[in-house]
Amino acid sequence: MAWVRDQIDAVKSIQIRQLLIQAVSLGMIVTSALIIWKALMCFTGSESPVVVVLSGSMEPGFKRGDILFLHMSKDPIRAGEIVVFNVDGREIPIVHRVIKVHERKDTGEVDVLTKGDNNYGDDRLLYAHGQQWLQRHHIMGRAVGFLPYVGWVTIIMTEKPMIKYLLIGALGLLVITSKD
Amino acid sequence: MHSFGYRANALLTLAVTILAIMCAVASFSDTFNSPSPTAEIKVVNIHRFQKLSNGNDEVAMVLNISADLQSLFTWNTKQVFAFVAAEYETHKHVLNQLSLWDTIIQSKEKAKFSVSISNKYRFTDQGSNLRGKEFNLTLHWHVMPKTGKMFADKIVLSGYRLPEQYR
């Protein structure tokens, strides 16, 4: 309780100059996070350099809550690579493995078929109605690196928004009340 | 300076930093492993070779695959995804890659194997170019680490040829 009382006292004792400093430091935190994200976008060439695995379709390799680092280069797509793709009419991108590739000689366009390692059949059932193949523009990037469990933070936050608000509130309070 | 909040914060920061460094070191240690896998693939039998009603050629075959991928495993290896793909060129396509069979290997003991299988995924061309076609059978592997960078490589086995006639 003493801690809480201290915090309240700290809030009360804020002066205008201190308030400004704190606003600036809060702004610094937000902007540096944004800078890191945008820099990652530049380096990896992918519009979302990090994705969280949401389903178990790639188990036992990737479990729900794992984080994947994506890279989008000009290199042609080849069988065996794990790609993240968007399907028309589906909001959430899918992370699956390429099992078939047909690359055209004249235009260089590719037809790609994917499959989840843990799924029985290929992904034609997941594609838009009547779609047989994925093309280059469906693919957002290929997975190059892997970090386990870290993605659970975002899964919990999106599924339980209360926790998110609590966390943001607590962090905000900490920043405001901290005395440098 | 010595409040509970500061101490908790310092402890958490230190723990996360150490964990991150350990992950990076584990991933980096994989680069010292120089694997030397071996593979041998035989086409035992081509038991179906036909033109489908949509005009595409389809082949069904029995393969005998023996491989030793044990040297790919390190302490940071979670699994090895291995697959055999048929690869060939046609007048319309620079490259056709068709995965025929795949397996997930989760332990070093199971990384040396010899199996006889018929193709798990359909060997279907985009068109009817398969009669008398020469093709490669390639064993690919993708190593999934416990944490860090994934890597992949392959062994290309060439000199396979499909029959001149449908059967």
TrEMBL record, chain A:
Location of the protein in the cell: Endoplasmic reticulum membrane
Coiled-coil regions, chain positions: none
Transmembrane regions: 20-40
GO cellular component: signal peptidase complex
SUPFAM superfamilies the record matches: LexA/Signal peptidase (SSF51306)
InterPro entries found in the cross-reference section: LexA/Signal_pep-like_sf, Peptidase_S24_S26A/B/C, Peptidase_S26, Peptidase_S26B
Membrane topology: Single-pass type II membrane protein
GO molecular function: peptidase activity; serine-type endopeptidase activity; signal peptidase activity
CDD domains (alphabetical): S26_SPase_I (cd06530)
E.C. no: 3.4.21.89
Keywords for the protein's UniProt record, in alphabetical order: Hydrolase, Membrane, Protease, Signal-anchor, Transmembrane, Transmembrane helix
Main location: endoplasmic reticulum
Metal-binding found in the keyword field: no
Family of the protein in this entry: Belongs to the peptidase S26B family.
NCBIfam families, sorted: sigpep_I_arch
Protein name per UniProt: Signal peptidase complex catalytic subunit SEC11
Lineage: Eukaryota, Viridiplantae, Streptophyta, Embryophyta, Tracheophyta
From TrEMBL, chain B:
Major subcellular location class: endoplasmic reticulum
Protein localization: Endoplasmic reticulum membrane
One Pfam family per UniProt: SPC22
Presence of the UniProt keyword Endoplasmic reticulum in the record: yes
GO biological process terms on file: protein targeting to ER; signal peptide processing
UniProt topology in membrane: Single-pass type II membrane protein
Gene Ontology, cellular component aspect: signal peptidase complex
Swiss-Prot/TrEMBL keywords: Endoplasmic reticulum, Membrane, Signal, Signal-anchor, Transmembrane, Transmembrane helix
Cited InterPro entries: SPC3
Signal sequence coordinates: 1-26
Keyword Membrane: yes
PANTHER family: MICROSOMAL SIGNAL PEPTIDASE 23 KD SUBUNIT SPC22/23, SIGNAL PEPTIDASE COMPLEX SUBUNIT 3
Functional note: Essential component of the signal peptidase complex (SPC) which catalyzes the cleavage of N-terminal signal sequences from nascent proteins as they are translocated into the lumen of the endoplasmic reticulum. Essential for the SPC catalytic activity, possibly by stabilizing and positioning the active center of the complex close to the lumenal surface.
Family membership: Belongs to the SPCS3 family.
Protein name: Signal peptidase complex subunit 3
